[in-house]
Amino acid sequence: MKQRPFLAALTLLLTACGQLDTQPAGLPDRDVALGQQLSTEVSEPWRGRWEVSRVPEWLEVSGADGAKSGEGAVRLTVTARRHAATPVAADQPQLRGEIEVNWTGENEQRGTARWTVTADQYRLTGRVTERPSVAGQDLRPGQPSAPAPQREVRGLIVTYRSAASRDAAVSPALSAQAALPAEARQARATLDALGVPASARQALSERSVVLRVSGAAAAQAQSVLSADPAVLSVTPNVVLHALATPAASSPASPVVPTDQYAPFQWAYPLMGYGAVWRDMEAGGYAKPVTVAVADSGVRYDHPDLDGRLWTPQEGALDVLTGTDNGDGDGPDSDPTDPSFAGRRSESHGTHVTGIVVARWGQNAPGCAGCSPTGVVGASYRAPVKVLPIRVLDAQGRTDIADVVAAVRYAAGLPVTLAGKTYTAPHPAQVLNLSLGGEGIAPAEAQPMCDAIAQARERGVLTFAAAGNSGTDQPYYPAACPAAVAVSSVTLTAAGTPTHASYSNHYAQVQLSAPGGSSVAAPTYYSGGTFGGQPFPDDIVSTGWDYTKNQPNYVVMAGTSQATPQVAAVAALLLSKGVTSGPQDTLARLVATSTDLGPAGRDEFYGSGMVNAAAALGAPAVSDALGVLLDDGQGHVYRPAMNALGGFTAYLGEGSYRVRAGRDQDANGLYGETHEPHSQPAQASLSPQQPQQDVGELNIVP
User: Which SUPFAM superfamilies match (predicted)?
Assistant: First the structure.
């Protein structure tokens, strides 16, 4: 009987413990290990409300029907997008992040559970090797033997049959002794007869002598001594050399402009201009070239364009036929991009023009507070001038008829506007059209295409912007058969070029060039800072402040900015004399471009990004060895190599193109067309294949 209260208390205690165990005090923190899986299921018992409040960028979290909140037990799928967290160096074997889940219990108690997620990276290895280059003649069967290398000889080494003969040869006192063997006395007599002075005889070993004779005397001595019975052998005293490989001559350094905003002009180094400008300083860019920029006109009063433009008196032209285009008049010889009350838009034509011909160094004073040096243009010291043709009004509009007139005029064909006929006194060899429109049917574009084809026949190569809507719709006039459609690239986190999302992509795209990330959604991979803030990966060039009516420098992005990059390289090819007309200029640009995306030509990049250094045959200005991994989705990695060329990259799932080579134009890209490179290797990584070795990547000069 005394035990019953104890049993009752025990029953009550056990019941209470069971109730506490059914409802945890809060969602617990926990570790979630994905290992090499792409995703995993995570569940926790719960009887209150919960909501996922924070998820790292490289993770995706979803519940039933994609929900990230609910009541009752927590059931979530955690998926890793490893590429979003893989650093450019690809040197992290494991990724780590924290998911936060806010919870509210039945008693309205609140808290936050933190789930630490780890994901093992996949592993790609390889080794970079270099095949040495061998200089010499072709020694295939049937070919003549290579000539023997020239040797330097310092006299003869004579070895006698006995020590007595050697002593007699070098010692006059000994050779006179009658007790010496006859052959010893003969050894001395032979040298005396040859006229070898005692000072030219040096004992080398017990039986050898060095004779310091040369030329004909050495040849005669070798012949006579070889027949002497006292002599065992006669050999030339050949000069030897240290076996250290001669140090390769250091490449010239790239030219780095000092203008104030030049450090933000990342497009030029990416295209190898540091080498081109070094080449230009050595001379050779002597032929004058005119680049016609048919655009919104230009500001002649911008100090960074002073002396780089054909003036109204020298053939510049405004072809706009209406009087509501911003300057209040019709066609005339003044293509100034006009200023008028209330105008706020930038000068598109001035921006495009500066990419090609902006001056280097000190400018004439432009305004109080204006940059004294500004930006640089691609043409540097080359005699390249821009012929401004105003074909876009102040709102950036034009029509097909006005474009036809601009193209014809640039090519030196007569055009009649408002009853007056104009013919360019300085016809262009290169035409830039950073304009166009979508929704134009091929038949509607035909007048423009005919004009561009006629210009090609007259020696004008036309480059046109591929369009900025990010679609696969052809954009005219870029899609005209005789035009060269140019798409835009921007930078990856690795500093390599990739397709700009806004750039149109279609079959007629032939080349690509840097055009910037996007003013609306910029990236900041170029590393520049201005006013303490990151500078966007867009294109900075000459502009005009219409509010203050003074020169300035403007950031823009688009295929409008990519197109003059290509036009500038074409002009330099003609100026240096590498090419002489449209056909060979275009062929050279295509052949030397840097292939991007899928191997070969594609609708995003055309044949590739224009490489100025390769096109112009510029000298090497760097000699870095490296390897790049590209997943074809805009993610590029630069794993480090050890002293033996080995590398290990920790990556996410996907297919990778692996390419090794040397960077000789200081643009950070290894193994471009003109540089030593390996054949690319392919690799695929996944949970089923978490490791792959691509073997040796042999770089061939």
Answer: Subtilisin-like
Q: Specify the pLDDT at position 3.
A: 47
Same domain, 391 and 501: yes
Residues 567 and 688 in one domain: no
Residue of 228, 296, 348, 526 marked catalytic? 348
Residue 165 lies in a domain: yes
Overall domain count for the chain: 4
Contact between 569 and 616 under an 8 Å Cβ cutoff? The reply is yes
Q: What type of residue sits at position 699?
A: I
Confidence at 175, pLDDT banded by 50, 70, 90: low
The residue among 70, 28, 125 whose CA lies nearest residue 629 is 125
Which residue range is the domain that position 399 belongs to? 262-338+346-615
Can you give the pLDDT at residue 11?
39
User: Does residue 180 contact residue 174 with C-beta atoms inside 8 Å?
Assistant: yes
- CATH number, domain of 508, equals 3.40.50.200
The last residue of one of the domains, among 561, 584, 615, is 615
DSSP per position, 67-97: -SEEESSEEEEEEE-GGGT--TT---SEEEE
For the range 190-194, what are the long-range contacts, defined as Cβ-Cβ under 8 Å and sequence gap of 24 or more? 190/224, 190/225, 190/228, 190/230, 193/224, 194/220, 194/221, 194/224, 194/225
Residue 147, in any domain of the structure: no
Out of 296, 560, 575, 622, the active site residue is 560
| Residue-level pLDDT at 18 | 43
CATH number of the domain to which 76 belongs: 2.60.40
Is 560 considered catalytic here?
Answer: yes
| Whole-prediction pTM | 0.79
**DSSP letters of 169-212?**
HH-HHHHT-TTS-HHHHHHHHHHHHHT--GGGEEE-SSSEEEE-
Q: What is the CATH number of the domain that holds 193?
A: 3.30.70
Is 295 a catalytic site residue?
Answer: yes
User: Can you read off the two tokens belonging to residue 216?
Assistant: 């004909």
Q: What pLDDT is stored for residue 219 in this prediction? A: 84
Name the active-site residue from 120, 167, 279, 295.
295
